[in-house]
């Protein structure tokens, strides 16, 4: 009996100790959901790496990698089954890790030469149908094509989007949903019969608000990337980590319940203060530079230490972002990739971020 009790208590105590050592409420990790044949391997990664490093929030970019029942036409190739998702959920629950599914909404409806599933199945939702996908993608290009967007004014698009959101929230037993919404370059296009001449800030804010309100009825909270809410010209940050297409003013029109994932990959830009002063909870997000990750963690720690209680509550923490497939990341992490395409920088960045959070926690 003692052995059984100890077996049950060890994971809980490990997670509790990691949380107690953390100086930030959120120690997060964001990555694409594993492919169906790699779920067991990913579960081991949760057990052996994420939990011991104190990670308490896992954002899984699912998109169309799930066996949707409400919209079977939007299933990707070899999607995760419901049973496999429950494996991931169970592993996270065992270690008190909040699991948050992501489906890219509004933007990122294509990549390189490929149209993603939503616009492939429902081409009528395309904001820019006149922009044809190239045989070989290059940037920059004459069409200004980075990724396609769906038109937020299309009368049928939210029937489909809400079905996806509802199903994915339910199967992941999630209290939050990440909608992406970064790098939206196609919005209020001058050839769109519905959006032409409209204010991009109003369109972006309207979509964020609509998604947030739908989630709130399900008892869930909306998370998004923060780049479209920063003025790229005024800050000098530019068109990628901030907006140059007039969406920044949307920040004053969206619900304060939205969690902002503030990604900056080259420097620890102090924009979390901007979001916090606007009343939003904010999380900093590094990628592949360990020194940037450490600086971001230290910055958030300092913000919390030197803020009023009203402001402190908004500085939630840090979340490592991974932009290679889960299998490729794990191969690099465990040194199993014979020809890595990068020097393990995402791996080193993740370790630097979690080590810094733990080190600052021990100083308290």
TrEMBL record:
Chain ranges of the Glycoside hydrolase family 20 catalytic domain: 78-324
Q: Which InterPro entries match?
A: GH, Glyco_hydro_20_cat, HEXDC-like
Concerning Pfam families, the annotation shows: Glyco_hydro_20
Reading the lineage from the top rank, the first entry is Bacteria
Q: What span is annotated as the signal peptide, if there is one?
A: 1-20
Tell me which UniProt keywords the record has, alphabetically. Answer: Hydrolase, Signal
Q: Which protein family is named in the record?
A: Belongs to the glycosyl hydrolase 20 family.
Name of the protein in its database record: Family 20 glycosylhydrolase
């Amino acid at each position: 009996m003692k052995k059984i009790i100890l077996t049950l208590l060890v994971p809980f105590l490990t997670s509790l100790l990691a949380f107690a050592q953390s100086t930030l409420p959120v120690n997060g990790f964001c990555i694409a959901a594993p492919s169906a044949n790699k779920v067991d391997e990913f579960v081991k990664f949760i057990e052996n790496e994420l939990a011991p490093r104190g990670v308490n929030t896992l954002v899984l970019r699912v998109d169309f990698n799930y066996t949707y029942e409400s919209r079977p036409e939007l299933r990707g190739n070899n999607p995760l089954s419901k049973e496999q998702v429950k494996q991931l959920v169970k592993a996270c629950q065992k270690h008190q890790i909040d699991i948050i599914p992501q489906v890219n909404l509004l933007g990122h409806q294509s990549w390189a030469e490929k149209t993603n599933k939503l616009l492939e199945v429902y081409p009528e939702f395309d904001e820019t149908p006149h922009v044809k996908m190239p045989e070989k993608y290059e940037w920059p290009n004459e069409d200004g094509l980075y990724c396609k967007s769906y038109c937020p004014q299309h009368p049928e698009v939210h029937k489909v989007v809400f079905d996806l959101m509802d199903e994915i929230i339910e199967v992941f037993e999630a209290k939050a949903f990440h909608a992406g919404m970064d790098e939206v370059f196609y919005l209020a296009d001058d050839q769109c019969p519905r959006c032409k001449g409209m204010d991009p800030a109003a369109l972006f804010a309207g979509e964020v608000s609509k998604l947030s309100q739908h989630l709130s009825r399900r008892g869930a909270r909306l998370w998004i990337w923060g780049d479209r809410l920063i003025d790229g010209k005024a800050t000098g940050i530019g068109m990628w980590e901030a907006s140059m297409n007039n969406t920044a003013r949307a920040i004053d029109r969206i619900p304060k319940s939205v969690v902002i994932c503030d990604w900056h990959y080259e420097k620890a830009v102090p924009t979390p203060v901007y979001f916090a002063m606007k009343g939003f909870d904010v999380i900093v997000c590094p990628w592949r530079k360990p020194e940037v990750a450490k600086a971001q963690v230290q910055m958030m720690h300092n913000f919390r230490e030197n803020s009023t209680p009203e402001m402190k509550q908004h500085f939630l923490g840090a979340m490592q972002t991974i932009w290679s497939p889960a299998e490729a990341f794990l191969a690099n992490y465990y040194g199993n990739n014979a020809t890595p395409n990068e020097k393990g920088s995402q791996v080193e960045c993740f370790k630097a971020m979690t080590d810094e959070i733990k080190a600052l926690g021990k100083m308290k």
